[in-house]
Amino acid sequence: MRDYTQAREIEVVLSEIADQVAGRLRHHQVQGEVVSVGIGYADAEEAGTSGFGAQMKIYPTNHTDDLSPKKTSASPTVQFLSGPLTFLPT
After folding, report:
1. Whole-angstrom Cα distance, residue 72 to residue 66?
2. pLDDT tens digits, residue range 57-73?
3. How many helices, marked H, and strands, marked E, lie in the chain?
4. For 1-90, where are the E strands, in sequence order?
5. Average pLDDT for 20-42
6. Which residue, 33, 5, 6, 9, is CA-closest to 21?
7. Percentage of the chain lying above the pLDDT 90 cut
8. What distance in Å separates the CA atoms of residue 64 and residue 9, rounded to the nearest whole number?
9. Which residues pair with 57 in a beta bridge?
10. 20 to 30 A Cα–Cα from 27, which one of 13, 16, 43, 62?
């Protein structure tokens, strides 16, 4: 296990997770309306925290594009669903 520190790497991981979740939703012919993300660290002791999580309500969907982060080219911010997720410098 490793920590992802670059915004592009995090975007790729979130996109892959969104694609897997959307595929499972479509397979079961259902839609989701709450998205939860939990972030942990490879070495929680070194990071000084075990991690954090967030969730938000969205319009019901099972489409990958609705669940994937949307990168804005102007800043190191990923537009995730309807809210921004800003990456802090490391």
Report:
1. 15
2. 888 988 888 888 764 33
3. 3, 5
4. 32-40, 51-61, 69-71, 77-80, 83-86
5. 89
6. 33
7. 17
8. 18
9. 34
10. 13
